[in-house]
Specification:
With 205 residues, the protein is of the alpha/beta class. It is built from 9 helices and 6 strands. The protein has a single domain, classed as HUPs (Rossmann fold, 3-Layer(aba) Sandwich), CATH 3.40.50.620. α2 packs antiparallel against α9. It is globular.
């Protein structure tokens, strides 16, 4: 049995922090694979700055030299009303029935679940395992203990909390802003992605 982490984001664009985070999580949690899952541009709660095709191509360029990393376009191909994390995790558990599948997320998303902001939250929490990364000085243990939906499903193996050394906050938004305002974010993302963005004039104002 292997261990697989599902790492979803807009990846608009993918950054070196995304890659470093995935590599660190894989190392600490002994994951055999990390699946990068770009979210659908059809989602009502997301506004993409580039097309699915461009985001997918940059993701492929970014992870091409790491055998632990895979990309999957499952959510990109879904209709908007089918894109919920609970459905996504059911898909990957069926796709990898002999492996343990974890959902990788930041502590900010844990807070959102605790506050009832996610659809099918009870089904999601009761049927899955999570790797939660520290973010914005959020106290993850208190977040779990204060939320009935989180604490009542916490059997000691439900949440793998990574609390140290994963708080770098260089974001895709920051990189997009740098490109649009004439900045120089070259070393904040893979060089192949930097060159791709320059070639296709992405994120320019």
């Amino acid at each position: 049995m292997g261990k697989i982490g599902i790492y979803g984001s807009s990846f608009d664009p993918i950054t070196n922090v995304h890659l470093w985070t995935a590599s660190t999580v894989a190392h600490r949690c002994k994951l055999d694979k990390v699946i990068f899952l770009p979210c659908s541009s059809k989602r009502k709660d997301k506004t993409m700055k580039t097309s699915d095709a461009h985001r997918w191509e940059m993701l492929q360029l970014a992870i091409s030299n790491n055998h632990t990393f895979l990309a999957d376009d499952h959510e990109i191909l879904q209709e908007a009303w089918e894109v919920y994390t609970y459905y996504t995790m059911e898909h990957f558990k069926q796709k990898y029935p002999n492996d343990e599948v974890y959902f990788i997320m930041g502590a900010d998303l844990l807070v959102d679940i605790a506050e009832g902001k996610w659809k099918y939250d009870d089904e999601l929490i009761s049927n899955n395992k999570f790797i939660v990364m520290a973010r914005d000085e959020i106290n993850m243990v208190k977040t779990i203990s204060r939320s009935p939906i989180l604490r009542n499903h916490d059997d000691g193996t439900k949440f793998h909390l990574i609390d140290k050394g994963l708080s770098m906050e260089i974001s895709s938004t920051y990189i997009r802003d740098e490109f649009s305002k004439g900045g120089e974010p070259r070393y904040l993302l893979p060089n192949a992605c930097y060159e791709y963005i320059k070639k296709h004039e992405l994120y320019s104002s």
